[in-house]
Amino acid sequence: MSFGHTPTAFIVQCEQPCYMTGQNPLPKDVIPPQDVTCLDTKIFLDIPDVTIDDKKYSEIDFKTQAEKGMTPAGYALATFTAGGDNTAESLETANKLYGAVNAALRDRGNRSILYRLKTVHFFIGSQLAASKGPEGKKLVIRNLKKTIKNCGRCTSEERSKFEEMLQAAEAP
């Protein structure tokens, strides 16, 4: 006997990513990347180093540059500006790694590192969107505005550079 219904299946993902604990709910716009995996080493307190596409977060961690006197914003500008070696693929990898750590920090309620990480993460997002050409323009503008908003420890030169990039993105 048929009732004219096509069978449907629902896929429910019950397991959370290895870097998440479930301690705190995430904002709706923070979606932990599912394809990032964990390593045995720690990057912050109890947060594991994460990897994807043969790249580890610890290899692109903004904190390693702080010891050399570089701010998170300075590191973002020097390391993740679109063009040259920073292809859409490499920026996507960096975006996923920073996205995983962003989610893990929020999950654990660690705000002190999160604020510095968000500057780098939003800048990576802006450059990833820029690599997509005109269709990425709205996202470039959104992420540059968020980069500037979270740029509490930026130098005046870094803030000016972000503002110049935003003005260029907003131009017709």
Automatic annotation (TrEMBL):
Recorded superkingdom: Eukaryota
InterPro entries: DUF7143 (IPR055567)
Domain DUF7143 per the UniProt entry, residue ranges: 20-168
One Pfam family named in its UniProt record: DUF7143
PANTHER family: PTHR37592, PTHR37592:SF1
Protein name: DUF7143 domain-containing protein
UniProt source species: Puccinia striiformis
